[in-house]
Inverse folding.
């Protein structure tokens, strides 16, 4: 069965299902009803049933969901069973932190190259990966299968770097630069805008503060 | 004028408006119509008008929006004009990367303390801030005004740490731990779940790949 025509809203929620099911699995829970999952996740039970129905429905009426089965199936749908090779462009603070993260590897994400233009960073070893000169990126991509480019570069540079990498055959970007990339159709971009997140927090803190006046 | 009763959906979009207006400002653009902003941001012009109307409407019919004024007003609404003191709990890779980020400071976010339980990290200086023993956090909070706690700790530890900090008077959390925090009412949490983001990317890469078969 293929998973065609699933809305982006459902896809956006799948990693969260995956995370909660992983926690339940660790707690030794074998079955869970949509209403129990609902109260845990603070999503309505009917939304849970609807969402999971998109994938053929893993639930049995009256028995709830098999946690382990559902966890594995969602993992498969998300592509956890497939290996993804990543390169990191920008070996600054964030690039280094992501390269040192080992937990992504358990999901099949492997950082196989790190690049920078800064002579002070080139040659430095991060978690066993030596930072290469960004001018080498084209030959690297020709010689190694790269699925995803992680951009941890200043926003001014992000657009032109992404376009260059698209020309080199990269179709997926995990973008940490503080700008939205405008790339062609068929190019996948997932943005992590930390400043946007911090500003939402700032708003909440401010509006709480005001209500205590 | 107060900004009461604004939906969370609008608030979520405000940092993005702020970012685009900042880019326009840098490009020297003084005025922009909702339809121009619409094509830039890929949001409908009517949504832009509706969203900005929530804040008293900065637009003049036929003249568009004054970029600088709108940028400053949204900044004020988001609380950029207020200083927020932050502490970082967890001086690992991500904690260190966030502590080294200087761009948050321009939004009024100041990291004033970093804490860890790891003896190898305690005493280490990150961007001029010395990592303190986590057992000192209570006295630190008593003696320093702290607005936001940044959690870059393992998910197993995040819940109990957050509850402890709530008892110490912290009401806002920027949570990087791979779990949703369940805290009481009135406590503000903004989650950055990098793994969720990576899994969404993984799904997209996988489904594109499949369509090329």
């Amino acid at each position: 069965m293929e998973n065609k025509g699933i809305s982006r809203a459902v896809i956006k929620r799948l990693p969260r299902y995956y995370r909660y099911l992983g926690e339940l699995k660790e707690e030794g829970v074998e079955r869970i009803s949509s209403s129990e999952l609902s109260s845990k996740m603070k999503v309505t039970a009917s939304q849970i049933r609807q969402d999971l129905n998109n994938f053929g429905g893993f639930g049995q009426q009256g028995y709830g969901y098999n946690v382990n089965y559902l966890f594995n199936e969602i993992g498969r749908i998300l592509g956890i069973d497939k290996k993804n090779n990543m390169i990191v462009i920008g070996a600054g603070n964030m690039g280094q932190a992501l390269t040192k993260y080992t937990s992504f590897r358990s999901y099949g994400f492997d950082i196989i190259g790190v690049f920078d233009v800064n002579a002070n960073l080139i040659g430095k070893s991060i978690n066993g990966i030596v930072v290469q000169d960004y001018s080498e990126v084209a030959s690297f991509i020709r010689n190694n299968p790269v699925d995803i480019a992680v951009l941890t570069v200043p926003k001014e540079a992000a657009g032109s770097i992404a376009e260059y990498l698209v020309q080199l055959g990269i179709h997926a970007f995990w973008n940490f630069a503080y700008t939205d990339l405008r790339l062609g159709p068929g190019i996948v971009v997932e943005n992590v805008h930390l400043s946007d997140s911090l500003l939402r927090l700032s708003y909440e803190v401010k509006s709480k503060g005001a209500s205590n006046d």
Remarks:
- The first helix of chain B runs from residue 8 to 26.
